[in-house]
Amino acid sequence: MSRPSQPKLTTADNHGVSVIQSQAHAAAASSSLQQVPQLVPATPAGGGKALPPSKMKKQPADKDSEEYRLRRERNNLAVKKSRMRSKQKAMDTQQRVNELKEENERLEAKIKLLSKELSVLKDLFLEHAHNLADNAQAPASDASSPAVKNASGQ
Amino acid sequence: MSRPSQPKLTTADNHGVSVIQSQAHAAAASSSLQQVPQLVPATPAGGGKALPPSKMKKQPADKDSEEYRLRRERNNLAVKKSRMRSKQKAMDTQQRVNELKEENERLEAKIKLLSKELSVLKDLFLEHAHNLADNAQAPASDASSPAVKNASGQ
DNA sequence: GATAATTGCGCAATGG
DNA sequence: CCCATTGCGCAATTAT
């Protein structure tokens, strides 16, 4: 699922199967399903007005009709477009996931770093606090007393 | 290995005559006629077939064949399954995006918090350092540290 | 080689 | 009315 090979196709006559248009039947298959042809509510003649909210069935879609063919083609185009978009969107979403994952890792790393820094600073603070306490208890020496001595307590 | 397919004209422009897929359902709705002219070589007689690199056309897929119908049905099932999965996957991906977004926000908030904490601690540190310096310079005063001004930055 | 999975495409119904 | 979406089937390809 990685190489969208081109859907190469050829002319209509290379496979013995492709049939061209001009087939005005909507037949139901034998066992399975198939769409159903519908009755024809005649042709809307005249000014084509007066369309009550009744059940109005569409004509069986004259496959030969120029109109029909035209609409079909347009729709096919629209379908193609829509599907393309859909696919594109999916890919974009996938990419978004990747980006977010990356971002996530970045943030996680940053958090780790900050935590570390914080931890160090806190330790320093505690150390200082102890020093101060010591100094308060034994304010004899004037300066330069980084050496830790007291080791009692908990 | 994989040979790139041939160029397939899929231009989104107007095709004069659209080639409809093989939809040669011969069955009629009203006037049922379940007789489809199928020209099938039937069972290959004779021994082995020597079909060298020639053009061998597939048979027009006998639509009436039980075999055919069976395969179609299976394929339809497979198709449905495949599409379902595809759709599901897309949804999952979308959801993943949402989750990651949330997670990111969470992390971002945490970073903000940690940064704040760090900033405070650093300020405190600087303050202390200044106090110490002051004490060293003027060790005569008692214990009245004036609020030091300081502006740390990042 | 057979079967299952994918993929492109067209049709029709339905929703804007 | 036109376009967009969507479910569905067919057939060709590809993967197992």
Molecular structure report:
With 154 residues, chain A is mostly helical. Chain A contains one helix and no strands. Chain A has one helix at residues 66-137. Chain A is rod-shaped, with a radius of gyration of 40 Å. The model of chain A is unreliable at 1-54 and 140-154 (pLDDT under 50). At the A-B interface, helix 1 of A face helix 1 of B. Chain A binds a DNA duplex (16 and 16 nucleotides) through helix 1.
Helix and strand content put the structural class of chain A at mainly alpha
Note the total helix count of chain A. 1
Following the backbone from N to C, one meets helices and strands of chain A in this order, namely H
Please give the alpha-carbon distance between the first and last residues of chain A.
65 Å
Number of strands of chain A: 0
